[in-house]
Design a protein that fits this description.
- This protein is mainly β.
- About 0% of the residues lie in helices and about 40% in strands.
- The strands form 7 sheets. Strands 1-7-6-5-4 form a 5-stranded antiparallel beta sheet, with no helix packed on it.
- The longest helix is centred in the middle third of the chain and has 4 residues.
- The chain starts with a strand and ends with a strand.
- About 50% of the residues are buried.
């Protein structure tokens, strides 16, 4: 499928947004809840929550490749209402074997009130895009959840240097508040182990984002719920130890000063500082925050990098950090047209400078950017919106500096 590009300029900042693809709601899917991953050739990969050609069309995995200044979309896999999983909510991850890995929120079995408890899958992308808009489906399920070990995973997966896989489930486990799990690979077989069961008390609960891992093998993430009296979420660390794994809360959110209800994974810079977003509240007036946690001899120091103004739904995705230490993120709502925005935070002496890169208009550029951002070696930003666009079903877009 060859697509023309829709260009939208933002003259004040000298930025240009190009719509690379507007989802049709058909074979190419619709409602991309997650962001993108990019390969060495510049191709983009993602998932949609809904769509496909089957009667039960519950999402697709897709690839976008540039050819002669046009972008070709190919469906790599379709998700049906069956034991192989459906409703992929998270972005994809390249594994050490160069295959793509991801999760589905539902399916896999008949558990979890008949919806299935979710899956982890492996997908082998084609080496080249064919002329047709559909490629053979090379997806296999490597794990099916059963509620006691977690249910309804919404986050991306990560890998350690040994090829083991880690992520979270938003619910299930011993207390029903979600889990941190590990899949250990032995050839083509995978063994699942639960590393931590959330209680939704002071430790937090319902992790919607995934995990990041530092060089020492420590895992970091956020919980949307639990923590203090308001149940506004926490930042946590899970560290390997001789007796297994040790869990600790690094920060409990206080809405008025910190923001609250973090929805996304964290990001780590070269100095070991953690950056993240909260979706609501905060000192800017209620539009959420971008925050930083810095390690010190006495623990972790928390500070709000930027408090966003009241605008409805704030950031739902992760922070992207470029090589110069600038931060990039999106808001699901707000902006000049109340359909979401992309912004940049530049470190300056004594604080951070805010720059608006793009305000979404709904048509034709999209509405509601939820997922992560990707930046290529030329500084171009890529992302998705979960609705809006020319067909109202979401978009993939690029912002060039």
């Amino acid at each position: 499928m060859l697509l023309g590009s829709v260009l939208l300029a933002t003259p004040a900042q000298g930025q240009m947004l190009t719509v690379l693809h507007s989802f049709s709601g058909g074979a190419d899917g619709f409602q991309p809840q997650a962001g993108l991953v990019q390969d060495a050739r510049g191709a983009l990969y993602g998932t949609t929550f809904m769509g496909g050609v089957g009667y039960y069309a519950y999402g697709v995995a897709y690839k976008l490749s540039e050819l002669h200044s046009n972008w070709i979309v190919a469906t790599l896999s379709e998700f049906g209402h069956d034991q192989n999983g459906y409703h992929p909510f998270s972005r994809l991850t390249f594994g050490p074997d160069e295959a793509l890995y991801g999760t589905t929120e539902l399916g896999g079995n008949s558990g979890c009130s008949g919806y299935g408890c979710g899956t982890v899958f492996r997908l082998t992308p084609p080496a080249t895009i064919p002329h047709s808009a559909y490629t053979p489906d090379n997806r296999t399920v490597i794990y099916r959840f059963s509620q006691t070990d977690g249910s309804w995973p919404l986050a991306e997966v990560i890998f350690d240097p040994n090829g083991n896989l880690y992520s979270t489930t938003s619910q299930g486990g011993t207390y029903g508040a979600g889990t941190i799990f590990k899949l250990t690979r032995n050839g083509n077989n995978w063994t699942q182990s639960v590393l931590y069961n959330f209680q939704a008390l002071a430790d937090g609960g319902q992790p919607l984002g995934g995990l990041i891992m530092d060089a020492a093998g420590n895992l970091y993430g956020t919980n949307e719920q639990g923590g203090g009296a308001c149940y506004c979420g926490v930042v946590f660390e899970l560290s390997p130890s001789s007796g297994g794994w040790t869990y600790q809360v690094l920060h409990t959110f206080v809405p008025q000063t910190d923001g609250g209800w973090p929805l996304a994974s964290l990001s780590m810079d070269a100095h070991g500082n953690l950056f993240g977003t909260t979706s609501h509240a905060g000192p800017g007036g209620g539009g959420g925050t971008v925050f930083e946690l810095s390690p010190s001899a006495s623990g972790w120091n928390f500070q709000v990098v930027y408090g966003l103004p009241p605008q409805g739904d704030g950031p739902a995705g992760s922070v992207l950090i470029d090589r110069s230490g600038n931060l990039y993120a999106t808001t699901e709502g707000g902006g000049a047209y109340h359909y979401g925005s992309v912004f940049k935070l530049t470190p300056q002496s004594g604080g951070w400078a805010y720059t608006s890169l793009h305000d979404f208009q709904g048509f034709p550029d999209g509405q509601g950017p939820l997922g992560n951002l990707v930046m290529d070696s030329d500084g171009n930003l890529y992302g998705t919106t979960w609705e809006g666009g020319e067909r109202g079903s979401g978009t993939v877009w690029e912002i060039t500096p």
